[in-house]
Amino acid sequence: MSRIPHLLSSPLMEHSVSYYSVDKAGNKEEEKQSVFSILHALPLTVTVKGGKGVNVEIKNNGTSAFTYIPYSIHIEGGLQFKTNETSGEILLLSPNASALKTLPVLGLGKVTIIVTADTWQVTKTGFVFLFFVLGVQ
User: Fold this and answer.
1) Nearest to 10 by CA among 32, 35, 44, 33
2) What is the distance between the alpha carbons of residues 27 and 63, in angstroms, rounded to a whole number?
3) Contacts of 8 (CB under 8 A, 6+ apart)
4) What does pTM read for this prediction?
5) Which of these, 102, 100, 90, 32, lies nearest to 66 by C-alpha position?
6) CA torsion 129→131→132→137, rounded to 10°?
7) pLDDT value of position 8
8) Which of 39, 62, 68, 110 is deepest in the core (most CB within 10 A)?
9) Which domains does the chain have, with CATH numbers?
10) What is the pLDDT of residues 55-72, one digit of tens each?
11) What is the separation of C-alpha 129 from the centre of its chain, rounded to a whole number of angstroms?
């Protein structure tokens, strides 16, 4: 049995590979094809700040527009009196553009803030005092 290395150099996200097998008796199966994609992380910057609630800026640092980018904002810890998470999709994020997302809070105590955007995850800590998030780092 020999192995042949393959270099995928196509700029397209979708690739195709054809294959078949031959058993010891020489029986050859029909050729099959499989299509797959190699996903790369989007060129995003995720900035988390406090203030009135948790404020998140998701910026597209690339040269292409991206659509349907999933995001979530979640806080853990402290004493929370209302929903401590939000999520959704950014429908369109043009090159060098930003989307601003906010998670309103009502609580008290030290918290961990977890933000995801596409495959990026940012974790920060802060302190919730009523409607405000202080000392995010």
Assistant:
1) 35
2) 50
3) 15, 38
4) 0.70
5) 90
6) 80
7) 43
8) 62
9) 44-134 (2.60.40.10)
10) 999 999 988 888 899 999
11) 29
The span from the CA of 23 to the CA of 30, in Å, is: 12
Paired strand residues for 18:
33
Within 10 angstroms of residue 101's Cβ, the number of other Cβ atoms is 20
> Residue 119 corresponds to which tokens in the numbers above?
């495959």
Q: What is the pLDDT of residue 74?
A: 95
Instruction: Provide the CA 62 distance to its chain's centre, in angstroms.
Output: 15
Longest dimension (CA), the chain: 75
Structure tokens at 36: 């797959």
Site of tokens 């429908």: 91
Tokens 């029986």 -> residue: 27
CA torsion sign, 117 to 56 to 99 to 58? Answer: negative
